[in-house]
Amino acid sequence: MTVETSAWRANDAARFDLAREAVGNVVALLLDLSRTGALDTNAALDEAKRFRRDLLDSGFDRARVDQLLTDIESRLAELEGLRQ
């Protein structure tokens, strides 16, 4: 019996899990800020959908996952400024 190996290494899967958690955090913050009126609701929803889509589209591409994390970190910093 032949066992196929995954395209992912353990650290790739861990990085994807980190990205998934980061997307959840940025989506929650976007929705919270839209609820309080700090952001336009439609714009916040569109951005939240884009982050989710970018995560799912990253597939097995570690570079895309890393870029997504960088984008999320930058956006979280901007959004935290709005929260103040």
Describe the fold and architecture.
The chain is mainly alpha-helical. It has one domain. It has three helices and no strands. α1 packs parallel to α3. The termini are far apart.
Helix/strand layout:
Blueprint lengths: L9 H26 L5 H17 L4 H22 L1
**Discrete helix count:** 3
Spatial gap, N to C terminus:
59 Å
Work out the number of β strands: 0
Shape: elongated
Order of helices and strands: HHH
Average pLDDT figure: 91
Percentage of residues in strands: under 5%
Q: In terms of per-residue confidence, which ranges show pLDDT below 50 for 5 or more consecutive residues? A: none
Short structural description:
The chain has 84 residues and is mostly helical. It contains 3 helices and no strands. Helix 1 runs antiparallel to helix 2 (41-57) and helix 1 (10-35) packs parallel to helix 3 (62-83).
Keywords:
single chain, 84 residues, mainly alpha, elongated
